[in-house]
Design goal:
573 residues, four-stranded antiparallel sheet
Length: 573
């Protein structure tokens, strides 16, 4: 009989507390679920002290129960322990008063104690929580993350980085993913999972990305591409233009500067990349469309066989078009204006509009003048033209392996490769029309890996990254435009410069992690630490990275040059 009584004294508190624990398991606040466990070690200790002398068997039961209880207490918050101590004090006072009257059953004591603790918790939360404060969010569950990726670009505000993921930690299949990485918190968010093509474009507001994608892996055969929209917050992506079933293919979508239009090329077939040689029987077409609805409308220059969309105008929804006759502008009102004529000989030189050549402040377009020989680009020069085509400037002696405007639109900078593989920078002032050459002291170890150039938000710094040390690694250098000085960033060795964060710190990556570097001190601060997986440092990743970054750079324009050479006979006009 005594044994049964001992067992009841141990089991009844658990039976009494079990309903509250089960209810708390569905409660969004983990604190309430832990409160019942907080009082149990004190309760059992009290039972041992009060009954141990008369019931030796209770010691054996305590040895079995206490380890489980104290493991639970070890993960409690301080507030939960505080509630338990106060609750125990109230219970002890109640027991002293009950010495003068018959002793209540242990079951109802446990139930009363549980109710008291929950009441205290509710009253404290109501008093402490500010008015209008939202309920506490549940604890974050472990999320997947990219393991090996190519950092493509930053949004216009410099607050998010886009990562083209080659491998994630939660999947092992042929699908690829696009991620947005918050550059302040370091939190990644998967935007798209499927079969994306590497050419992507941020919306001006940074809420979404447009991209070309297919419904199945390309594998050994080409797959038709459509235009998809991926949301930066991770909400469901959707097709804006589904991959066609008639053998055509959508490629190279670009967002208008106003954020309400998209433009893309429509190929007459599903091309293999890079495009092959031989004449074109049917030429690609260019289309513009509303972001959310409406049928695509063709962008066509009258009298031209080939009309390729080049870039969106900054100040209005006008489109710069590349044709065999030269460079045109289709205004928002639909009117066509010729800005620059092609050379007298076929493609010698030939003007190409590129997205990075559009001045953010409007008024100017930096375009490429390409000399094409036998379907290949023999020379590239850089020139400027205004939106009316009345004023033109030539930036002399610049082969722009990489170029871009400062965010304020005052300076156009370009990287050039000089004799002896020396790397120089030309800085063109848009207001005065003057060009200044800067010697960087850098040497290019290989031209296989493309150079990237980006300007800081305040317009003071330029970031260059490329193979400046040896062929098996890449380096990051910053150019101080005010002082004309260049320095390699030692802490950014074997890192890539992705772009500039909103606070004028340079975002860098090693294909597995992301950090920022202060250009003055060169100090590296991690944002998204790399995982223990080191496959991103293997040579295959470096070669693939060079290929993907090349496609992100001038690949569209090089492909347009090949298209022109194949579409238009090489005869004098």
């Amino acid at each position: 009989m005594r044994r049964n009584d001992d067992a009841m004294h141990l089991l009844l508190p658990w039976v009494a507390l079990l309903p509250a624990i089960l209810i708390a398991a569905w409660w969004p606040h983990t604190l309430m679920a832990r409160l019942p466990l907080a009082v149990l070690p004190l309760y059992v200790t009290h039972q041992v002290a009060s009954r141990g002398q008369r019931s030796p068997g209770i010691f054996a039961g305590t040895l079995l129960v206490l380890p489980v209880i104290f493991c639970s207490v070890a993960v409690l918050r301080v507030a939960a322990v505080l509630y338990s101590v106060v609750g125990l004090g109230c219970w002890a006072l109640g027991r002293r008063r009950r010495r003068r009257r018959p002793r209540p059953r242990m079951f109802w004591e446990a139930v009363a104690l549980q109710g008291l603790l929950l009441l205290m918790w509710g009253i404290t939360l109501a008093l402490v929580a500010p008015v209008g404060r939202p309920a506490a969010a549940p604890q974050d569950e472990p999320q997947s993350k990219p393991l090996v990726f190519v950092p493509l670009s930053l949004d216009a505000a410099g607050r998010q980085a886009m990562l083209f993921s080659l491998r994630d930690d939660d999947r092992d299949d042929e699908q690829l993913a696009l991620w947005s990485l918050n550059l302040d918190s370091g939190k990644p968010q998967r935007m798209y999972l499927g079969h994306p093509f590497v050419t992507t474009d941020w919306s001006p507001t940074g809420h979404a990305v447009c991209l070309s994608a297919s419904e199945a892996s390309r594998g050994d055969r080409a797959q038709p591409l459509g235009v998809a929209l991926a949301m930066a917050d991770g909400s469901a992506s959707r097709w804006r233009l589904a991959p066609p079933k008639d053998g055509t293919c959508w490629m190279y979508p670009l967002w208008s500067k106003q954020g309400n239009q998209l433009a893309a090329w429509l190929f007459p077939d599903v091309p293999e990349l890079p495009l092959g040689a031989g004449p074109l029987q049917r030429v690609p077409q260019s289309f513009a469309m509303d972001v959310n609805s409406g049928e695509p409308r063709e962008l066509k220059i009258r009298g031209a066989r080939l009309s390729l969309f080049g870039a969106w105008q900054a100040e209005a929804a006008g489109a710069y078009m590349v044709t065999e006759h030269g460079l045109y502008l289709i205004g928002a009102d639909g009117k066509q204006r010729k800005l620059v004529s092609a050379g007298e000989a076929p493609f010698d030189p030939f003007p190409f509009a590129v997205p990075e050549g559009v001045c953010p402040a409007g008024g100017w377009l930096a375009y490429l003048e390409m000399t094409i020989r036998n379907g290949e680009i023999a020379r590239i020069d850089l020139s400027l033209v205004d939106a009316k085509g009345k004023h033109r400037r030539v930036v002399p002696d610049l082969y722009p392996v990489a170029f871009g405007w400062t965010p304020d639109g005052k300076v156009l900078a370009g990287a050039q490769v000089l004799k002896g593989e020396r790397v120089g920078v030309l800085v063109h002032d848009a207001a005065s029309g003057k060009t200044k050459a800067l010697q960087t002291g850098l040497k290019l170890a290989s031209r296989e890996f493309p150079i990237r150039l980006t300007a800081s938000p305040d317009g003071r710094w330029l970031a260059l990254d490329g193979q400046f040390v040896d062929r098996d690694s890449w380096s990051v250098a910053v150019v101080d435009l005010a002082k004309g000085q260049t320095k390699l960033l030692p802490e950014a060795a074997n890192l890539l410069a992705v772009g500039w964060r909103h606070d004028n710190k340079l975002v860098v990556s090693d294909l597995g992690g992301v950090g920022v570097v202060c250009p003055e001190s060169g100090r590296l601060e991690p944002i998204f630490p790399a995982s223990a997986d080191k496959n991103h440092s293997q040579p295959w990743a470096v070669k693939l990275l060079g290929h993907l970054r090349g496609m992100q750079g001038l690949a569209r324009e090089h492909e347009a040059a090949r298209l022109l050479a194949r579409a238009v006979p090489a005869t004098p006009r």
